Amino acid sequence: MVTLAEVAQHAGVSASTVSHVLSGKRSISATTRQRVEQSIRELGYHPNAGARALAGKRSNIIALMIPLRTDMYVPVMMEIAIAAAATARTHGYDVLLLTGEEGPDAMILMDVELEDQRLPLLRQTDRPSVLIGLPADTDGLTCVDLDWSATGALCVEHLAALGHRDVAVIGEAPAVYERHTGFAERTLDGLRSRARETGVRVLHRPCDGGYDAMAVTLARILDERPATTGFVVQNESAVEPLLALLRQQGRAVPEDVSVVAVCPDQVAVQASVRLTSVAIPAQEMGRYAVEHLVAKLDGRGGDEVVLIVPELTVRASSGPAPAAS
Amino acid sequence: MVTLAEVAQHAGVSASTVSHVLSGKRSISATTRQRVEQSIRELGYHPNAGARALAGKRSNIIALMIPLRTDMYVPVMMEIAIAAAATARTHGYDVLLLTGEEGPDAMILMDVELEDQRLPLLRQTDRPSVLIGLPADTDGLTCVDLDWSATGALCVEHLAALGHRDVAVIGEAPAVYERHTGFAERTLDGLRSRARETGVRVLHRPCDGGYDAMAVTLARILDERPATTGFVVQNESAVEPLLALLRQQGRAVPEDVSVVAVCPDQVAVQASVRLTSVAIPAQEMGRYAVEHLVAKLDGRGGDEVVLIVPELTVRASSGPAPAAS
DNA sequence: AGAAGCTGTCGAAGCGCTTCGACTGCTTTT
DNA sequence: AAAAGCAGTCGAAGCGCTTCGACAGCTTCT
Predict the structure, then answer these.
(1) Which domain range does residue B69 map to?
(2) Which nucleotide is nearest to A55 (CA to C1')?
(3) Looking at the structure, do residues A43 and A98 belong to the same domain, yes or no?
(4) Domain count within chain B
(5) pLDDT 10s digits, A182-213
(6) How far is the C-alpha of B37 from the C-alpha of B181, rounded, in Å?
(7) Alpha-carbon distance A233 to A260, whole Å?
(8) Same structural domain for residues A124 and A164?
(9) A113's torsion region: left (phi>0), alpha (psi -120 to 50) or beta?
């Protein structure tokens, strides 16, 4: 292992000079700088992160708290994690995967609940953090999330504009509502209030992923509201079952019924019908989270809540409502 | 921040004594130990990882190299990552997410290719590592993977036992074969050789995920081998499209055709037909990887290749071949 | 009874790095 | 021409921890 001292010796300067070349915190003459950089390259020097953290009082590590449960939006989580790791690297940080509770200096929390248990502790430490997701009270916190309320609104709006008057919302699994993760409720709120404005009737049903659960849910929906012609699906793993069931019942998409999904674009284009969807910008969230965190660590930027504006992409699963018969 | 020195003072002992209580590398009297532990608790002491790494010459950090591309087996990757992180914690290690090339002391590589670019570097450093996946040459390496060859064999065997004589294999996306990730080829090898033994005819077609690609592939298969009654699907994202297409063509599962998938159990039970499948033991692999790594770091255990024995679970998608007509 | 061996504790060195104060030799100001 | 300022460099201290050698006070062996 090559140390800073060895580099210094090789370049014929003192250790502190090398350190200053590295950090740029003191001016160094061009010739000295070049000599040092040359030595660093020749010796293949890599600073020791531990020593750096010790002496410099900062760890250059960002913790990413991922939920242990793997029952939901796994692809989304993964994308966020990868984007976060990649972004962190460009800022000289590394990302630590945390499944437990305690962590290092700076952290990103995923899967935040409305009344998240971790918030009180977060607020009282001065470690910077960024939440992905919005708790009930965002005071003193930095959060990034998709604007779920606007997402919901966008979905009905699209269907309303196409003439649909009865819309069913296939929600997340009941467990998600019980956990009060917030985004599900917010979507629904946005959706309902826009529905009121546009004169659309909305029926909401939570639904577990998978074919069987979807079958039951769909039957109930069509039983209660036989005139339903529009579906908004928030649960990724309910999309394909829904399409299969509709097909099976002879309801053509998009001629008879329209489906709007909230899911990553990748899912939308791989479905059996190319789905009109509002994208979940996982990568963007991951990137934002890290960038805000780095800014905070540098003393720049304070608390803020960033809501990403949703975008709806029209694909093949939505069309004009059939003429009322 | 509470330091070891403060704990020592509070407990009325020297710093080294506290350190020994923590590490257990020297015997400490019960009374002293208790006093120290008490102080640790009262003061809320947490060792500084950086200092520890510096002094102890070991970082307690395991790097997990995840592939940047998010086009494949994302749920599997995620499960592995989470299992690895959780296991690492129980051994006092943390997991660092690496998307780039260089890393810390110990690492886990995912998504290993047959002739992986990273291997030469790996072999020449003495940093312990574990690969998830099998390269062509495993000499001097520790690897964990599902026994894909046996997996393939298991799939045909099951279909053969049910009387199927013509089996089609829906493979991974062509890109996977081009990248030579190995597992796809191995599965096929195992499958073919067992097919030969059991007198089953096999037709293999790579297939991108999604509905459209599957439709094309299926049409080609049925065109070439109209008598096909068994399907082995290795590409997770082709499963649901296949089921939808079969349904659409009036081929009942499992009465007319049987389908065996290779996918995580969760996917198998959420599909529109509960799938007979060979599970991909993602969590197990993650756990194994970390445990081997920790053993190596402790100087125990050398290089070895662990192939996890596949298990086939019979569900509702496979049954006796229809009587030849 | 003395030698030998334990056990439990301490002090000090040092891990690789950052940073602060100090110093040197200039250039600029008054 | 002396004072003041500055760019560029160095030395030393110290971050929080582990670990090694030393040693005091016992117990056990011969």
Answers:
(1) 61-146+282-308
(2) D15
(3) no
(4) 3
(5) 999 999 999 999 999 999 999 999 999 888 89
(6) 50
(7) 6
(8) no
(9) beta
